């Protein structure tokens, strides 16, 4: 996909693009590069159209693509949500005359760039139209990268911008952004701006500048508890309270993470790999990697018992029994005692 971006920068455009995947960064970056490469500022209003195919029939999109440009050389037409290429159900009552699209795909005009954006993991390969568009279009894969791909991506962007960022800093950036490309790229942009003069990014920079999401703070809190660092866990918890996070919301996220650890533990016992677990549970592979590491510190019985405690706490919080903030403190201390007992055994 980076090779296709380079072609776009050189104004080597394909007549039809098909973007497949759910990674917002890749989708938005591709759109941005196409707009910048194809359109001049003064003719954007005349030669740019953006359609949602759940609201607009495909024949209108084709008609727009066949319209000759005004005051410019090319037109850019973007059409999102082509559900007629997927197995997804839609509530839209729009009927698409896809024969018009088939005709266009076989003979696209040379003055319009037509871009389809399918925010799905894959298309319905059984359909004749899917086979035709994949044959005629330039495909841009917008799937979420795995950890190795994300590491290569971040270090590649750093190198292109003439920055040095070692593996430790890259890994910490991935960890703190939950393996999410869009978030990681936003944070990398911020890091490069901050270190513009030095042009080197270290782990300490990542630690001090990258904003942790609430979910990432929960991961870190559990890591502290597993390491029997109760003061570290409480420090994170108190910081969350200072940020006006509700104890019941923090509890729900802790319970969600323990539920994930329990599922991972069970599936790993059944012989599933981490990649298979991620696919089966429909969660990001990086979450499974972190969860698998955390799950090693608990037996399956301990995890189920902890979930029962959390469910009881949730009930008590929702029924107004006791102080909510204090209940989570007690939970952290009880989990620390549980971990100490396990280590002694």
Automatic annotation (TrEMBL):
Q: Which reaction does it catalyse?
A: DNA(n) + a 2'-deoxyribonucleoside 5'-triphosphate = DNA(n+1) + diphosphate
A single GO molecular function term of this UniProt record: DNA binding
Annotated GO CC locations: DNA polymerase III complex
What biological processes does GO assign it?
A: DNA-templated DNA replication
Enzyme class of the recorded protein, top EC level: transferase
Q: Does the keyword Iron apply?
A: no
**Domain DNA polymerase III delta N-terminal residues, every copy:** 17-143
Q: Which Pfam families match?
A: DNA_pol3_delta (PF06144), DNA_pol3_delta_C (PF21694)
Q: Which UniProt keywords apply?
A: DNA replication, DNA-directed DNA polymerase, Nucleotidyltransferase, Transferase
Which InterPro entries does the record associate with it? DNA_pol3_clamp-load_cplx_C (IPR008921), DNA_pol3_delta-like_C (IPR048466), DNA_pol3_delta_N (IPR010372), DNA_polIII_delta (IPR005790), P-loop_NTPase (IPR027417)
Q: Where is the DNA polymerase III delta subunit-like C-terminal domain?
A: 215-334
In short, the EC number is 2.7.7.7
Q: Which PANTHER family match?
A: DNA POLYMERASE III SUBUNIT DELTA (PTHR34388:SF1)
The family annotation for this protein states: Belongs to the DNA polymerase HolA subunit family.
The protein's name:
DNA polymerase III subunit delta
- Gene for this chain: holA
